[in-house]
Structure formats: C-alpha cells, structure tokens
Amino acid sequence: MTDATISAMTGTVALPRQNGELLFDEPWESRAFGIAVALSETGTYAWDSFRTHLIGEIEGWEIENGSDSSAPGPDGEAWNYYRRWLASLEHVLVEGGVISTDELASRQLELAAHDDHDHGHDDEPEHDHDHGDSHDQIHHKTEVTT
Fold first, then answer.
1. Range of weakest confidence among 26-35, 81-90, 106-115
2. Which domains occur in the chain, in start order?
C-alpha cells in the first residue's frame, strides 16, 4: 500500500529521480528513505501525516531560502530534499511519542561524533574503507527503484 502512495507523490514532495529511478546522493539519504517507509508500513505513523510534514518542511525551506533550490539560502544551507525528508520523519516520530526531543538530540550528537572524522579521500567517487566497527562503507551515488 505505501509503495503506491509513495510512487504517486507529485509536485513539491515528489521523490528525486533520474531516468525513473530514485536518486540518492549520499548513503544516509537512502537509509532515511527506507526507515521512513518501513516505520509507516509497520503502523508507527500514518503516511499522510509524514507527507503533510514533508510539504511543510519544503514550504518552510522555500520561505526562508527562496524557491531557487540550486542556490544556497542566506544561512548557507543548500537545498537537499532528504534533509527535509529526515526533518519530517523526526517530527512525526516526536509527535507520535515514538521518541522524545531529548532522545533525538542525544542520538544526533552520538551519530555526529561517530561520523565526524576525515577519511582523506573525499574526491574519490567510489572507495571502500573499514571504519573499524564491523561495517564497511562504500561512498557512491545510489539509485534505487520502487
């Protein structure tokens, strides 16, 4: 059910696509997408609630930064659809009592500390490396079909 609803999203909330395929520029974007879909499918929140928050997030960004998504806003933040997606997910999870704002902030700090290290190969488009914590990362553009 959610797959058809997600595929049918149009307008400002339409998912980024290239040649009909979902487009993710960073691995975290595909993970945020998957988490949002999975939590909706398990009944953690209603998809319509998420979609409403996503519309609000996109509109809010446009009000603050202008509708030209290719130019960074006054705060220097560049447009990123999945940042709006993630903010929407956070809102529905807090709103639904799944996580508190304090728990969310704490987890964000933990993840930022874990990910805030220089790999020394940012200009290499695809590179395998070991983080030393039992998972390997591959940095590349990811395309997923739905």
1. 106-115
2. 2-71+78-113 (1.10.472.20)
